[in-house]
Design a protein that fits this description.
By secondary structure, the chain is mostly helical. The chain has 9 helices and 2 strands, in the order ααααβαααβαα. Helix 3 packs parallel to helix 5, helix 4 runs parallel beside helix 7 and helix 6 packs antiparallel against helix 9.
């Protein structure tokens, strides 16, 4: 009827909170933490293959959470802090404890000190990474400062992985051999050595298809012979460190040379603008 007011429909309030897309990256990060902690449990049970596999899974998940956050536009300060905590647990605490239960425990307090030293160095390395994020010069965009956390965790456990390839090597990797190795890896992590950041490396168009074929081969080998593949990758990464140092030094020298030339040019222009030199 005319004159009657239309009743306004009551709108149901929207639920506040995060969408599933925003939660997925953090869920992957939590899963990486669970994998790292599970590695400690497997080490306590003496199941070394599962312990090493748990750290490998944590490393794979660690490479996915950041990319997933960028893909879903779900990056946040909370996610960054959670990722750092997960990295410290999965790649700092867990590998140190696994190696202690596997070998370092034979040295008693010295072995425990080595495990703690590795974990502390990993924490320091992650803290430094967060503090210098975004402050590196342009020529250093493709380099890390020190060995990154997942690679350091893998190198720490390399003696264990090699014994999974060849059990006879267990007699060689005694605690007296493992302890110096872990200290060496920990020092690599907190060092200032520039190491390649392969995730930012550009591949020529002509090498895309061969590169994808190699990735497929690597995945097939990882599924079929995981410990052999993991050993080859870790040793190959260790070999690249001297080349990364050499390449970084060359880029730094070129950048400093260009900067010096620019300063000299600007200085000459300023001298040319002085009244005594004007016509």
């Amino acid at each position: 009827m005319i004159g009657k007011k239309k009743r306004s429909r009551r709108q149901s309030p929207r639920l506040s909170g995060l969408t599933i897309n925003k939660i997925i990256p953090n869920a992957i990060t939590v899963s990486a933490t669970v994998a790292g902690l599970s590695g400690i449990r497997f080490a306590l049970e003496g199941r070394w293959e599962f312990a090493a596999g748990a750290i490998l899974i944590a490393a794979i998940l660690d490479t996915l959470d950041g990319r997933m956050a960028r893909l879903l536009n779900a990056s946040s300060d909370f996610g960054a802090e959670l990722d750092s905590l997960s990295d410290f647990v999965s790649f700092g605490v867990a590998p140190g404890m696994i190696m202690y239960f596997w070998s370092l425990g034979d040295l008693g307090g010295i072995g425990w000190a080595c495990a703690l030293f590795f974990s502390i160095c990993m924490g320091l390395r992650l803290a430094r990474f967060n503090s210098v994020l975004g402050t590196q010069p342009p020529y250093a965009y493709n380099y890390f400062q020190g060995v990154p956390a997942p690679a350091a965790a893998g190198l720490c456990m390399l003696p264990l992985v090699l014994t999974l390839v060849d059990p006879s090597l267990r007699d060689f990797f005694v605690a007296e051999m493992v302890a110096p190795w872990i200290i060496f890896v920990a020092l690599l992590a907190v060092s200032s050595l520039p190491t390649f950041s392969f995730k930012k490396m550009k591949i020529p168009s002509s090498m895309v298809l061969p590169g994808l074929a190699l990735v497929g081969l690597a995945i097939a080998m990882l599924v079929g012979r995981p410990w052999v593949t993991m050993s080859i990758v870790l040793i190959a990464y260790l070999v690249t460190i001297p080349f990364s140092v050499q390449r970084f030094a060359k880029l730094k020298a070129e950048a400093e040379s260009l900067h010096q030339d620019g300063d000299e040019t600007s200085s000459e222009n300023e001298e040319g603008d002085t009244p005594s030199n004007k016509s």
